[in-house]
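Shapes recur. One chain:

:::
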Amino acid sequence: MRVLYYDCFSGISGDMNLGALLDLGVDAKHLKEELSKLSLDQHFSLEICESSKMGICGTRVSVKLVSQEHSHGGMWHAHPHSCHHHGHDHTHRTYADIEALILASTLSEAVKEQSLKMFWLVAVAEGKIHGKKPHEVGFHEVGAIDSIVDIVGAAICLEALHVKKIIASKIELGGGFVTCAHGTFPVPAPATIEILNDVPVSLGRVDSEATTPTGAAIIKANVNVFEEQPSFKINKIGYGIGHKDFKIPNVLRVFLGEMNETIRCDKEIVLETNVDDMNPEILAYVQERLFAIGVKDVYTTAITTKKNRLGVKLCVLVSLEKEDDAKRLIFEETSSIGLRRYVVDKIALERMIKVVETPYGAIEVKCSFHEEKMLKYKAEFETCKHAALLHNVPIARVYESVAREMNESCYVCKI
């Protein structure tokens, strides 16, 4: 499986991201041709050049506005509503304006969807900060030409790389104070930290803004998992050179590689308790409640407890996110006064739900894959039960019809 890994040890901004992905091998001509599909009201050009920071060579990207009369340090660039205060187009656009611009273009549907997903994250964050609905937010610098290029360009480049999974390290945000259009703020900028809610971050490695709202939105919208030590084979490395000078290299490092992850290994939590003084009917009710809140599995085992009492061991497999809910429910609904907890590795095949048309209607089928080949399938009980009752036939006949359809179609699907 082709994967992309973001090593954000020095943060991330929109221009650094474009530079890194171009340095990784995305064709600059392709990026420019795709960006030309946007009917922007102001002409721009991309300035792409080789550059370096503290001995690390890579690619630097800047947006040059044709009508602009001034620059910052000779480089034409800006960062969306971050606390960088450079000279650039200050056109104010709402999310609705940007949405209309992107939807009216001839970009691919995937690029349109990802671009709007990134802009929406910024709109929601800004709306929360300023007490407005996302559609009412005036984007200020986020609506500037260079910011649109950064975000739409990110979607174009990621599509061109054809990766199936994007991983990232924790995101360095920086530190200190900076001055922007709204005044002097602590780093990270309010929009940046709002976007990166629930994302692993680090602070203070540099005394400046390391991650901008655009960089934050690119990460939040596209990364599948955050992992400090992923295991994969590296095929290529790219460096996006930033415009600032830190005590560490102001670069974004990205890796393109291969990962064998058709069999997933996830960390899960097992909670278990012994009960010997409960009505079995109530225990069945507890199992239903646990599944309803989203645990992965619940099962019981008959055991003999102290004083030779007959009892049951209740075991629950649950994700870290749902663990507290599961513990609360067990303590509230059972006679247990203590739980055993341990972390396990859960290994699972990739799965997807296929809908199969049968004489008894559409039936959901869970298909499991290994190395892009389907190994097994199982018709979902609830849909089979519904079809059997609706058509007044034995449920076994519904299962048989699913098997016929699956065998006749020789169903093969790549993951």
Notes: The two ends are 9 Å apart (CA to CA). The first strand starts at residue 2 and ends at 7. Residues 2-258 form one domain.
